[in-house]
Amino acid sequence: MSRNPKRRAARVSAAAVVVVAAFALAAGPHPARDGRAAAPRDSAADAAAGHVLATPLTGVVSPVMDDQLRAAIERADREHAAALVLEMDTPGGLESSMREMIQRLLASPVPVIAYVSPSGAHAASAGVFIVMACDVAAMAPGTNIGAATPISLSGPMDSTLARKATNDAAAFARTVAAQRGRNVRWAERAVREAIAASETEAVRDSVVDFIAGTEAELLVKADGRTWRRGDEVRRLHVAGLPIVRIEPDFRSRLLGHLADPNVAYLLMMLGFYGLLFELQNPGSVLPGIVGGICLLLAFFALSTLPVSASGVALIVLGIAFLLAEIKVQSHGLLAVGGAVSLALGGLMLFRSGTVHVSWPVVAGGTLITVAFFLFVVGAGLRAGRLRVTTGARGLVGQRGVVVERLAPAGRVRVAGEVWNAIGAAGVEAGVEVEIIGVNGLTLRVKPAAREE
User: How far are the Cα atoms of 400, 432, 446, 448 from residue 451, in angstroms, in the given order?
Assistant: First the structure.
């Protein structure tokens, strides 16, 4: 160890220079401060990231999808991916979730590419905003985008409220489109007039950037395009990079399936079955537990969908008609009315044309419900009206023979068993008696009427 103060000072100075230089290199060049945007940066670091992440965003726009997007962006940033591809196929969904997702996209540290795919997919309603908010937007052949008019989950809106909601959504659409250099006029018309466009029309109207048949073609066409965060502009280098897929975890898949309109409808019907069966057969326990769980899951699913109060009312009315058919002789009219009400309720359960219960599910659910009530619940109610044949109540009305004279207490034989009995005084042994009541282990009897 050197004891020369000058040498020690020189070493400390050299170390300080190294530390300052390291901080300067880590900070990198600052964006232009004269009000002009910085020139596009050909980032070799992006290309060196070596891969592109891709995740599917399918189904209803909901908190589940927002959580999936958040996790994908965080992973892409953590792995320094060159880009994140969102494979879009959505009918729309909650405005609150859509706004959360767009905030994440506008602030994402990784460039995001929206890809409406596969053929037959669409980006409707809230999906339009999400696609336009991405740095690059593309569509596969045979896809469409549009129809972003807002609707209310709580029911029809009056003219003033509808106008306020539409104006707010139109302003937001213009803002998002302007941020990404897309067609502002078309974005506003998608909200106000609910217009939609095919993939070729969307490219022609500058709604999306290009059409790509495969993900490899998507990366080739996206390569070299610029993306902006604040004043900093960078260039994409993604051509030929491998694509690593991010598959949703079990929780995301489960919650995503629950938000499906068909699943929500079936869960609601199963919930009704279970609770009604429990009410008709108290103490069964299992049907009540299953029905309660199904109804709670259905409520979660319906909270993320544009539910129609009329549709729910028709379903409840249909079930009431079927219950009444079991107890009232209507010659099948109530059953027919219940079936029609259930079918119409299933078809009208959601107000959005892009979110609906499929015909086969509605038909199957209606037929199963009608059969369930007419046969299963009907059989249970008919069994409840049958005469009790067991226990104390089952003994009332049965006949026996006196084996020990009633004075007034004695004993009688009933169905091979000898019981203590009390009845009219002076009934001799061998006389047939009828049970009229049970007091603990003692029967109350009277002489049986003779059959003519």
Answer: 15, 12, 15, 9
pTM reported for the whole predicted model: 0.63
Taking the C-alpha atoms of residue 408 and residue 445, their distance in angstroms, rounded to an integer, is 10
277 Cα distance to chain centroid:
25
Give mean pLDDT, residues 330-336: 78
Label residues 408-442 b or e (16+ Cβ within 10 Å = b): eebbbebeeeebebbbeeebeeebebbbeebeeee
Q: Report phi then psi at 210, rounded to 5.
A: -165, 175
* Per-residue confidence band for 13, with pLDDT thresholds at 50, 70 and 90: very low
Query: What residue has token string 């048949």?
Result: 213
Nearest Cα neighbor of 414 from 341, 233, 423, 387 is 423
Distance CA 311, CA 399 (A): 56
CB atoms within 10 A of CB 312: 15
Q: Give the end-to-end CA distance of the chain in Å, rounded to a whole number.
A: 130
The answer to whether the beta carbons of residues 98 and 105 sit under 8 Å apart is no
Q: What pLDDT does 46 receive?
A: 43
Cα(433)–Cα(398) distance, rounded to whole angstroms? Answer: 9
CA–CA gap between residue 69 and residue 380 (Å, rounded): 49
